[in-house]
Amino acid sequence: MGVKPAILLALFLFLHPCRLLVAGPQILPQQECEELEEDEEPPPITYSGPESGRFRIFFEGKEIGHEDFEISGSANRIKSSSRTQLTISREDPAEPPEYLDEEDYEELPPPDRPPPEPVTFRIQSTLRFNDLFEPEDYEVVQEAGPNRMRAKVEFLPDRSRVSYVSDEGVDRKRIELRKDVTILDDNVFHHYLILSKRYDFCRSGIQEFSAFVPQQFLAGGVSLSEVGKEEVEIEDQPHWLRRFLVDTGEFKVNFWLDSDLKLKKLAIPDSEVEVVRE
Q1: pLDDT of residue 18
Q2: CA distance 278 to 260
Q3: Which residues pair with 121 in a beta bridge?
Q4: Which has more pLDDT, 77 or 162?
Q5: Which of 51, 79, 141, 217 qualifies as a FRET site for 29, CA 20 to 30 Å off?
Q6: What is the pLDDT, as a whole number, of residue 49?
Q7: What pLDDT is recorded for position 24?
Q8: Is residue 28 scored above 50 in pLDDT?
Q9: pTM for the predicted model, two decimal places
Q10: Over the Cα atoms of the chain, what is R_g?
Q11: Dihedrals phi, psi of 198, to nearest 5 degrees
Q12: pLDDT tens digits, residue range 157-202?
């Protein structure tokens, strides 16, 4: 897809400001899959019921924030929403300024100035879709200090409409998207939980999905596959979980489900991000 690992976009926006770039019923583990006739189509994977919870977010082993999410609604109109808070510190650049060579840079004492203040990002997202996981509209708002940006998507049969609003004005775009496109937005981790609900456990194997990253205005394909069962340590406690792999073509995301198909942990190795469910 050509997208940046999720947590890196927040760092990028801070360093380089720009215009804009659940407890309840679960899907059954499908251990008893019905046998189909040769020409019979399997039933579609559909929405499974309400869910809510909190994810703790870690970067380079340090906890930097959390995401509270909720999925609820009727059979034909489901709403998923989240509130995320991330606090990130900017460190001094690893590369020397252009006017110094590397030897001089290494010999200079560290600059005599106070450490940079950490920056807190607040992200709110709202996605509405039907029981076949076909999205209707999506909105994400990201705030960092006085900076605020909003992306809004209206999904239409022909060309979906996307609006980006920032201090510099409004930028409107149109894009062709599949009606069952999966939203995998930056720094919104419960979107991977929704993706996991679309996996057909009876068919298993590698399954392909169309995905869209609204904040980066990028669309492409992602694959999802089950790797196998393994013991995973979460908060010093061992858990026997099912591991899944999401491959975007640019980076990989691992996540782990328990026996009730509840998402317990997510990891993006390329960006040293881990997300753990409370």
Answers
A1: 31
A2: 15
A3: 86, 144
A4: 162
A5: 79
A6: 74
A7: 30
A8: no
A9: 0.79
A10: 21
A11: -90, -5
A12: 989 999 999 988 999 999 999 999 999 999 999 999 999 999 999 8
Query: CA–CA separation, 221 vs 178, rounded Å?
Result: 11
Task: For the chain, give the DSSP string.
Answer: --PPPHHHHHHHHHHS--S----S-------SPPP--TTPPPPPP-----EEEEEEEEETTEEEEEEEEEEEE-SS-EEEEEEEEEEEPPPPPSSPPTTS-HHHHHHSPPPSSPPPPPEEEEEEEEEEE-TT--EEEEEEEEEETTEEEEEEEE--SSSEEEEEEETTEEEEEEE---TTPEE--TT-THHHHHHHHT--TTT-S-EEEEEEEGGGTEEEEEEEEEEEEEEEEETTEEEEEEEEEEE-SS-EEEEEE-TT--EEEEEEGGGTEEEEE-
- Bridge partners of residue 251, in order along the sequence: none
Joined together, the tokens standing for residue 256 give 């782990």
Residue 265 in contact with residue 255, Cβ under 8 Å? Answer: yes
Would you say residue 137 has pLDDT above 90? yes
Report domain extents, the chain. 6-30+42-96+115-277
- For residue 202, what are its two tokens? 């009876």
Query: What is the reported pLDDT for 148?
Result: 93
